């Protein structure tokens, strides 16, 4: 079963008449490729010079045409004209060059109308490299300088620019800053100091809620609860629900002395 959304595969014929033709795969510097992209299709972009010496590998040179060299924009560095091509053989690989032609007399391209060609088999790889001359050094220095330039630069403003005008602070940020300033910074004190404050507070009252204890000790609530669990009990029932009180072993409340009634000594009747 085939999916109806799948594009159907179309078999097209491949013209293999140029299979036996050998072609070169040439890698050129980026600055040459950019100039060749800008050049129109009716001008000469360069010439190849092949020098053969018996017993040695052929020497290949590329000379850029004057038409390509004149494509520089004002302020751009001049391009090196002469380049060498280092040749290397293709081994353990089968590489080919293919092309396809689309008829220009039809508005809708039908897959069956495209013609595929094999232009040749790659037999050599060549890498185009410039000679180390002053022109190349200037070009390389300029490219390094541009690469090191920061993407963002400081601009001096002589007038009011709306894009750079500071944005007013949001309301919730202002409220938070006011609350933070009023409460002060709650930093953790050492445990012994916090216990002393708690014991002093519980001498005045037997029950406290967590909010009151936090205001008294000025400690983070998580840290405060850790200490309270050690020395206090948390009431879950009325009449003191949700209140903290000291554990019995830490209580030192003053017991009210019972009122003693003094009786008059028995009177002795004297005869």
From TrEMBL:
Similarity comment: Belongs to the TFIIF beta subunit family.
TFIIF beta subunit HTH domain: residues covered: 187-251
Pfam families: TFIIF_beta, TFIIF_beta_N
GO biological process, one term: transcription elongation by RNA polymerase II
Localization per record: Nucleus
Gene3D superfamilies found in the cross-reference section: Winged helix-like DNA-binding domain superfamily/Winged helix DNA-binding domain
GO CC annotations, alphabetized: transcription factor TFIIF complex
Name of the protein this chain belongs to: General transcription factor IIF subunit 2
Keyword Lipid biosynthesis: no
Kinase keyword on record: no
Stated role: TFIIF is a general transcription initiation factor that binds to RNA polymerase II and helps to recruit it to the initiation complex in collaboration with TFIIB.
Highest taxon, organism lineage: Eukaryota
Domain TFIIF beta subunit N-terminal: from-to ranges: 21-100
């Amino acid at each position: 079963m085939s999916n109806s959304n799948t594009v159907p595969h179309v078999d097209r014929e491949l013209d293999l008449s140029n299979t036996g033709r050998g072609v070169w795969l040439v890698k050129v510097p980026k600055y040459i490729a950019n100039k060749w992209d800008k050049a129109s299709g009716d001008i000469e972009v360069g010439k190849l010079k092949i020098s053969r010496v018996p017993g040695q590998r052929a020497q290949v040179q590329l000379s850029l045409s004057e038409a390509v060299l004149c494509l520089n924009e004002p302020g751009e560095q001049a391009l090196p004209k002469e380049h060498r091509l280092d040749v290397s053989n293709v081994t353990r690989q089968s590489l080919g060059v293919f092309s396809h032609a689309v008829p220009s007399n039809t508005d809708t391209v039908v897959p069956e109308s495209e013609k595929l060609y094999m232009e040749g088999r790659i037999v050599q790889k060549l890498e185009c490299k410039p000679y180390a001359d002053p022109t190349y050094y200037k070009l390389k220095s300029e490219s390094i300088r541009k690469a090191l330039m920061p993407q963002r630069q400081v601009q001096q403003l002589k007038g009011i620019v709306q894009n750079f005008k500071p944005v007013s602070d949001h309301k919730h940020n202002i409220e938070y800053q006011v609350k933070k300033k009023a409460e002060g910074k709650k930093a953790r004190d050492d445990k012994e100091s916090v216990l002393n404050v708690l014991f002093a507070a519980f001498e005045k009252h037997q029950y406290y809620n967590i909010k009151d204890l936090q205001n008294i000790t000025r400690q983070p609530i998580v840290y405060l609860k850790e200490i309270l669990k050690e020395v206090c009990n948390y009431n879950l029932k009325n009449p003191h629900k949700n209140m903290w009180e000291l554990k019995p072993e830490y209580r030192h409340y003053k017991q009210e002395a019972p009122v003693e009634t003094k009786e008059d000594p028995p009177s002795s009747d004297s005869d």
